[in-house]
From TrEMBL:
PROSITE patterns: FE_B12_PBP (PS50983), PROKAR_LIPOPROTEIN (PS51257). It comes from the Bacteria. This is Iron complex transport system substrate-binding protein. Belongs to the bacterial solute-binding protein 8 family. It comes from Abyssicoccus albus.
Length: 288
């Protein structure tokens, strides 16, 4: 049951975020690419690579850039081979975490000649850059992806160069799910790497990946700041906190350092990673 829950939380995260190593580069011309993106982060990368006009379908979670909202949408959990094939795709770009639930349908499309690209899960900022190149390679856009990597690196470095000085290291609790259990980002996750690069401390760095935590553990660790990034509202989170006397005693709650952040920015490994870092930086150092 625990393994199944971890799998489910991985799928929830992958809806907000995003492997394959193509054996050969596609010889299809730009004009004839017909791409279905099955992960919002992949969609953002495709548009950043100037392949937006080739995208013919996305997920029902896609909202950026705004152009995608007019495209046919698919439920990542309930793919239908016939519906996908109606769009006559040449390529489908999916994600490492989502692929197991999609494999049966995607195998059918592969038999029909559709190229399936499975993007690796990025657990560090450097690995985010790798995904740009991974998405670009089948479409002969490596020159553009290398340019995108350099631009994004420069923007990320600008955020890191502007970290306020602090005598203490802020202890951060980063939450990715509240129900049915609290889940946090441990080590070997992108959130952990971002927190570390911002010279703060992830209080659950001793855990690996996304893990459920006991409320008693959170109270014992007593974070300075409580960050939550999912689709719940700040009111929902505060109602949950106020309903627990012990939880109200942690530093973050007592000092009004509880924040609900935009999951589309924080949980998607995209060229907007600098915006995610900036959002984290500004909240962490406001709390220090």
């Amino acid at each position: 049951m625990r393994r199944f829950r971890l799998y489910l939380i991985g799928l929830l995260i992958c809806l907000f975020i995003v492997g394959c190593n193509p054996s050969k580069e596609s010889t299809t011309s730009d004009e004839s690419y017909r791409i279905i993106s099955l992960m919002p982060s992949n969609t953002e990368i495709l548009y950043a690579l100037d392949l937006g006009t080739s995208v013919v379908g996305v997920t029902d979670q896609d909202d950026y850039p705004k152009d995608v909202q007019s495209l046919p949408q698919f439920n990542t959990y309930e793919l239908n081979a016939e519906a996908l094939l109606k769009l006559k795709p040449t390529h489908i770009v999916t994600h490492e975490i989502a692929y197991p639930t999609q494999q049966k349908v995607l195998d059918q499309l592969k038999k029909e000649g559709v190229e399936i690209i499975t993007v690796d899960d990025a657990t560090t900022i450097d690995e985010v850059y790798d995904t740009f190149n991974q998405v670009a390679t089948p479409f002969d856009r490596t020159d553009k992806s290398e340019q995108l990597v350099e631009e994004t690196k420069s923007q990320v470095q600008a955020v890191l160069d502007d970290i306020p000085s602090s005598d203490t290291m802020t202890r951060v609790y980063y939450e990715v799910s509240l129900e049915p259990e609290r889940y946090t980002s441990g080590s070997e996750t992108l959130h952990h790497d971002m927190i570390a690069q911002l010279k703060a401390k992830n209080i659950y760095e001793d855990l690996k990946g996304w893990q459920s935590i006991a409320l008693e553990s959170l109270i014992e660790k007593n974070p300075d700041i409580y960050l939550h990034a999912s689709d719940i509202t700040e009111e929902d989170l505060m109602n949950d906190i106020q309903g627990n006397k012990a939880l109200k005693k942690i530093k973050a709650v007592q000092n009004d350092k509880v924040y609900v952040l935009d999951p589309d920015i924080l949980n998607r490994p995209t060229p907007r990673i600098d915006e995610a870092l900036k959002l984290l930086r500004d909240h962490i150092y406001e709390a220090s």
